[in-house]
Amino acid sequence: MWLPVSDPEFFARISPWFMAMPHSRTLGLQLLAASKGKVVLGLPFRDVLIGNPATRILHGGVVTSLIDTCSAASIFTLFDKLEAVATLDLRIDYLRPACPDATLYCEAECYRLTDNIAFTRATAYQDDPGRPVAHGVATFARTPVPAAIAEAL
Amino acid sequence: MTQSWQVNSIEELDLLLQTRIPYSALLGIRVRAGDDGQPLFCLPFSPDNIGNVQLPALHGGVIGGFLENAAVMHLLWAREASELPKVVDFSIDYLRSGRPLDTWAQCEIVRQGKRIANVLMTAWQDDRTRPIAQARAHFLLA
Question: Which of residues 109-128 of A touch B (CB under 8 A)?
Answer without folding.
Answer: none
